Amino acid sequence: MLFILKKKHSVPLYLSEVAPYKWRGACNVLFQLSITVGILVANAVNYGFAQIKGGWGWRLSLGGAIVPAIIFIIGSLTLADTPNSLIQRGKLQEAKERLLKIRGVDNVDEEFNDLVEASEQSKKIKSPWLNLLKRKYRPQVFFAIVIPFFQQLTGMNVFMFYAPVLFKTMGFGDNASLLSALITGAVNTLATIVSILLVDKFGRRFWFLQGGIQMFVMQIVITGAIAFKFGFNGNPGELEKWYSILVVLAICIYIAGFAWSWGPLGWLVPSEIFPLEIRSAAQSVNVSVNMIFTFFIAQIFLQMLCALRFFLFVFFMIWVVLMTIVIYLYLPETKGIPIEEMAGIWKEHWYWKRFVPVADEEMADVKDTKKDEDKN
Q1: Rounded to two decimals, what is the model's pTM?
Q2: Among 2, 18, 148, 232, which residue has the least CB neighbours within 10 Å?
Q3: Record's superkingdom (predicted)?
């Protein structure tokens, strides 16, 4: 658990700090891609070891987790510090050299000066945790809580944790349920690649809204299909081939909707909206909320499935509608904004501007940045 918390806290922040702002979305979504690839490999390994006669293949599946852990440890030893981290520790020359190497250009004076200024401002903060309570950080804290909260209430982790159980409950055989989980894992990976390619083209809001609508429609289909066959007694009888194909297809489209929207963006957006002075503390809040509700959903899912049957998907459907409305109303676009200038997006938002006082020169800088991005 400590390994998971460290990874989900550090990796999105690291990627956001080293990535060029024009490609920050794609670089950050690589984190989500690594997770989906891991899920796919785990499903493939489970399916393969399930074929071993004698029923002891699960031991190999469990023990095999040591392989990615070793790769992660060795890989982390080769990582260099980010320019932000070096500046915070007073290593300005080394930070500038690192920034030049990362950007691959001859002059990074403007970006470097912005990082130094942000670092100086952050050093004035005595307690980042108490600083989170300040009124001007209200929008960042709001999204640090609601994005991971909503991400878990899409119902996606239900399919990831319990896909074999869910498919078996719907009448698929043991091997068929594992194979179906393997298929959904492949869809999850491919859809994440779509997000990498297009998240910096269409922006964060587009994918949040599109993914929410897609998940909502597919949850209607899944609910209707399960209600049609299972009813309230939970006995579907013999499942026709067309029904099995419909259910798996609907679940795959639902997973694709999550995998190119709420999956990667749930980590990308929080990691890029936090100013340096509260970045670590706010990301800790983000990860904590995610882990708490991951645990909560995992613990109650089977009981909810038995009690609610197909109404379980109606439960998640309601949350998908609510989260889509919240994103539409309250989340400004963060595409193409340098991470150290991100505070400006709240100052021109119809709701959040009442919490964040705006200086005329800061507003002009934000608008100039957006104009430059639109031209490019």
Answers
A1: 0.78
A2: 2
A3: Eukaryota
Q: At the top level of CATH, which class does the domain 128-353 belong to?
A: mainly alpha
Cα separation values, 319 from 55, 140, 146, 253, 294, Å: 39, 21, 12, 18, 15
How far, in Å, CA of 345 to CA of 350, rounded?
A: 10
Contact indicator for 144, 131 with CB cutoff of 8 Å: no
CB count within 10 Å of CB 290 equals 23
Angle between helices 279-308 and 311-330 in degrees, nearest 10: 150
Q: Report pLDDT digits (tens) over 19-39.
A: 887 788 888 888 888 888 888
Q: In terms of C-beta density within 10 A (0-12 exposed, 13-18 middle, 19 or more buried), how is residue 77 classed?
A: exposed
Nearest Cα residue to 272 out of 325, 192, 347, 204: 204
CA quadruple 273, 202, 344, 324: dihedral sign: negative
> For the chain, what are the domain ranges?
128-353
The two tokens of residue 306 are: 């038995």
- Distance (Å) of CA 352 to CA 24, 88, 138, 141, 327: 24, 29, 8, 12, 13
Region class of 357: left (phi > 0), else alpha (psi between -120 and 50), else beta:
beta
How far, in Å, CA of 265 to CA of 290, rounded?
A: 13
CA distance 250 to 220: 9
Question: Angle at Cα 213 formed by Cα 258 and Cα 289, nearest 5°?
Answer: 45
pLDDT digits (tens, 9 = 90+) for 175-232: 666 777 788 888 989 999 999 999 999 999 999 999 999 999 999 998 888 787 766 6
CA dihedral 146, 148, 151, 155 (to 10 degrees): -100
- Using CB atoms within 10 A of its CB, is residue 51 exposed (0-12), middle (13-18) or buried (19+)? exposed
